[in-house]
Write a structure and sequence with these properties.
This protein has about 110 residues and is α+β, with helices and mostly antiparallel strands. It has a single domain, classed as 2-Layer Sandwich (Nucleotidyltransferase, domain 5). Helix content is about 35%, strand content about 20%. It is built from 3 helices and 4 strands; from the N terminus they run H-E-E-E-H-E-H. A 4-stranded mixed beta sheet has the order 3-2-1-4, covered by helices on one side. A hairpin with a 4-residue loop joins strand 1 and strand 2. The longest helix is centred in the first third of the chain and has 19 residues. It is flat, with a radius of gyration of 15 Å. The chain starts with a helix and ends with a helix.
Length: about 110
Amino acid sequence: MANSKRTLFLKRRLRVRNKLRKINTGKPRLSVHRSSKNISVQVIDDIQGITLASASTMEKDLGFFGKNNVDASAKVGSVIAERAKKSGRRRGALRPRRPSLSWQGKGFGRCCA
């Protein structure tokens, strides 16, 4: 019997998370979600199961609502870096929510490294 798409997705998700846990013991996970209109970023501590910091273009004070471009991603990257420093974390492991997503040309490498 063939595996369903959902079952394959769950296996893939567990595989990626387990690899991250082995490589980045004690480091928080930087989860980036990019849609066609917005970008949202979260710094997640998997050990405690809490979100340490988050930033999104949907926040009014950033002024980039409905924008998914290099300027918006650079601003979100700098905001999440400031908020992560306030929470006491300096480095995180970058992991896409979906392995097929890539952020080349979106400015995350410069802002979140």
